[in-house]
Amino acid sequence: MPVTYRPITPGQRDLSSLARPSGGFAMVAIDQREALRTMFERHSGGRPVGDETLTQFKVSAAQVLSPHASAILVDKHLGFDAVVDSAAIAPGCGLIAAVDHFVPGHGEHIGRSVVDDTVDPAEMAARGATALKQLIVYRPDGSAGERAEIVGEFLERCHRHDMISILEPVARPPVDGRTWNRDEMVVAAAEELGSAGADLYKAEIPLGKEGSDDELRRWCGRLDEAITSPWVVLSTGVPPERFPHALEIACSAGAAGFLAGRAVWAPVIGSVHLDQALGDVSVPRLQELTQIVDAAMTAGPT
């Protein structure tokens, strides 16, 4: 049964604090938590990686990348305070605070995601954030009612504190073992949540590792039909070398840019000279993606 969401905001909020002059979005995510720790541990010979390593990475990434990004997304527990305290965000770059709490389960770092009651939106706003982000786990055997409750709570908080709301549904396998199609679930999530009232929708890219350009354009077209707000894509599940072309196709189908992490900075994880690697590798990647977005905003959907 379709879930009806109570309207939270009359019309769209002004998203210019997160956007480029072209109107597109070139945003970098550094809000990863245990998944980021796992990435570092792959380069540490299996040695445990402490919180301080992850926090320093986030600060360095923000310092090096924010001059080239339209916004940076960071989490409260491992990065937000350190990033703000170190003045790592460049002038003109927006700041997004993640307010999701990840609950491990089913062999995954993120078995469930709920609104984190320990994150105070008023504090985030006072420290410079103009937007909040909530991840929603979408499983074919999951509860639409539970998802609606989480989304409603998140949107209400954004409305109460006059902050931009960014919703990030991610498709995950069913717990009951039924057969599933990840790409169909990405679209199903958009059909359920794409009109829930968020100001910006962050979507997974269908056909992450395979499929023709025409097939990907059709899948992204289905997302565009389902999502009533502006939407951007994330890079998880897409090989870094494929992401620029996938982004170009998504933008031609209606996407307004990206909010991505791994496609920008994953290759530098474990680098001895992190700041230099971010500058030499990640900045050119980010600039390439930004050029794609700006060109797409000029051309418009095809």
UniProtKB/TrEMBL annotation:
Record keywords, A-Z: Lyase
GO biological process: 6-sulfoquinovose(1-) catabolic process
Transmembrane regions listed in the UniProt entry: none
Keyword flag Lyase: yes
SMART domains: DeoC
GO molecular function terms attached to this record: 6-deoxy-6-sulfofructose-1-phosphate aldolase activity
Gene3D superfamilies: Aldolase class I
Statement: the UniProt record of this protein carries the keyword Zinc-finger: no
Family: Belongs to the aldolase LacD family.
Name of protein: Aldolase
Gene source species: Phytoactinopolyspora halophila
